[in-house]
Design brief:
Number of helices of chain A: 9
Oligomer: homodimer
Helix content of chain A: over 70%
Number of strands of chain A: 0
Strand content of chain A: under 5%
Chain lengths: ~180, ~180
DNA sequence: AAGTTTTGTAAGTGATTACTCACTTTCATT
DNA sequence: AATGAAAGTGAGTAATCACTTACAAAACTT
């Protein structure tokens, strides 16, 4: 990975997040990255290849976060860490995750039967076990709800990232576990 | 609203939902609708105007559903009806609502400070009152959570609309209210 | 230092696309 | 039936875009 290669990636990420994939011309990416347009195609074959390279990074980052959650021994800690995840992600790399979420609704990635990553599945399993250990009657369903809350919370964070909102909402969400 | 005008609208809706706004050429809309391409611009000025016309329909449909919820007298019924809303919407007009949800992530509608519709605000208020009447300590926060669940649930419905999944999940969600 | 591979550039190019325009047809009103 | 407005057509067109290609510079290998 050369210096310019990485420059192209971070520039494309920023522009895709700002303007969307389809409305960001490769010429603009090249211009903002300060490289020739041809270089993009030399390194990433085509525009889709560029997007694929960006998406590939997301798997790594999610794995790292999943590992962190799995290492917590207390189930309640795991649940709370899961709830904190969106806040954490958006604070650290807002545009990157905005792009990830918006991708879920794009045709290209919508139809290729969405398969959760191994890391994701491991967290699901750990949370299910956790809910069971805590005495919840339907642990699988509880995890589903938790995942929905995660989705919805991320959505809210993406649209209105006011700090007070985040703090009070997160605190209230946590207060629901255990119940 | 002439016959062809409506044909253009429903065709554009379908294609935008299937392929996305940016990747659907007006020439294809015209072809599939069986009209000349020029007619699109005669009636809707430009491609954005076409999208605006589609979005305008969503406000009406949401209002109708909001009214239905508001007419329920029992707060629990209101909450349950709210939870049923995504299922209802997706069953009736799947592609229309898929498009609506994907729009939330598109630049054009993302930045223009998202303002909830009057109907939406009225439902929020009614739900808040409902939670208070049911003795919940923090009704505003409860409504926030309910809205997150709605978002997350819609998301799940959009990605994997298996009937069993829908039924059991909806039942479990409802069982959480009242608690 | 010579040779080879990799990285990088600049100037295209063909295809696509949103939109226009000159024109015709349909329709409502008198 | 005449007229004016609205609906509808279809053949452009200028601009944009993803991608190619011929070539040069840099870096790595021996």
């Amino acid at each position: 990975m050369t210096e310019k290669q990485e420059l192209i990636l971070v520039t494309a990420l920023r522009l895709f997040a700002e303007k969307g994939f389809d409305t960001t011309p490769t010429s603009l990416i090249a211009k903002e990255a300060g490289v020739s347009e041809g270089l993009i195609f030399r390194h990433f074959t085509n525009k889709d290849g560029l997007m694929d390279a960006i998406v590939a990074m997301s798997e790594e980052r999610l794995s790292a976060n999943a590992e962190r959650i799995l290492q917590l021994s207390n189930p309640i800690d795991q649940i709370h860490a899961t709830l904190e995840l969106p806040v954490k992600l958006f604070q650290e790399e807002r545009e990157f995750w905005m792009l990830q979420f918006s991708l879920k609704w794009q045709k290209k990635y919508k139809n290729q039967t969405y398969t959760p990553s191994p890391a994701h599945l491991k967290v699901i399993q750990a949370l299910t076990d956790g809910f069971r250990a805590l005495g919840y009657a339907q642990p699988e369903q509880e995890v589903k709800i938790l995942m929905m809350l995660l989705d919805g919370f991320s959505h809210q964070l993406a649209l209105s990232p006011s700090p007070e909102y985040i703090e009070t909402t997160l605190a209230f969400l946590k207060s629901k576990y255990p119940n």
